[in-house]
Amino acid sequence: MTVAHILAEKGASVITVRPGNPLADAIHLLVENGIGALVVMDEAHTVVGIISERDIMHALATHGTSALDLPVSSQMTRKVVTCRRETTNDEVMQLMTEGRFRHMPVCESGKLVGIISIRDVIERQLAVLEAERQAMHDYINMA
Length: 143
What we know:
alpha+beta; about 45% helix; three-stranded mixed sheet; CBS-domain; two-stranded antiparallel ribbon; single chain
């Protein structure tokens, strides 16, 4: 299974934020949309970072409530690992595990085309395992 399959099932909608927006804006977007990370995009619609709940918690622990006024760019992860539609689930799981992150933007030809989370990958992996289990069960019962 590939990232394209995941995007086909979940959709390609991505909530983004500008690097100059305050962290308070990012928090509101996360809560309103029930998501764990935002892709940070500049005026040219280029991915320049990603900000997650973890990044925001770190900022709050370090700066207290004054962190809410800090720009997203001051707390975002700048080195963003991305994938493409043809990237396999196994490759995504390996990248996420090695990099210790849970959200990955999907980019093609320099354009953001979606985002996947570890939850998306695991749900699809569990569906494959369940299908294999059911096939084995059916095979055994036919014998």
